[in-house]
Amino acid sequence: MGFWQNVIMSVLFGGIGAWMMYGVIKTRNKLKYKDKLWTLTRILFTASGVLLLLTAFAFTEVMDYVRLAAMMLAVAAYLLLRDGIGEEGFASLGRWNDWSEVTGYDYRTEKEKLRLFFTVAEVKKNKKEDYNVQITLESKDEAEIKAFLKQKIGKKYKRMRK
Hints:
- The radius of gyration is 19 Å and the shape is elongated.
- The chain is α+β, with helices and mostly antiparallel strands.
- The longest helix is centred in the N-terminal third of the chain and has 25 residues, at 3-27.
- The strands form 2 sheets. It has a 4-stranded antiparallel sheet with strand order 1-2-3-4, with helices on one face. The protein has a 3-stranded antiparallel sheet with strand order 5-6-7, covered by helices on one side.
- The protein is 44% helix and 30% strand.
């Protein structure tokens, strides 16, 4: 790769990695119940990180190693990001939402997974927009999580379509 291509890739992946690390730091100690499931996406990111490290032996320039570091930062930050719920709200891909922003929620149990569905109200340019967020947790804590949600936002429970 040429010098400027490495610079562009380093800036791009470094920015993405820094943005995701900010989400990791912002949500790290706020989550009580965390997503601990290995999804296909996490497995693919792990494989890409391993393959990226294996290519390090073919590098000849310093900028190649800078690009490698930026790309590994992005991969590691993605793997560290956790979805989950906490005392003050919930996090999905590093984005924090307070319980006051939730307008409705539902849950569904599938095999060994508990899927939580939240509808969140967001105000953009004096206009209210709703969007949906899904979080998948392990079903072993299902009763405890349901009781926790009922305590925090019980009046906002809505049966959503399947």
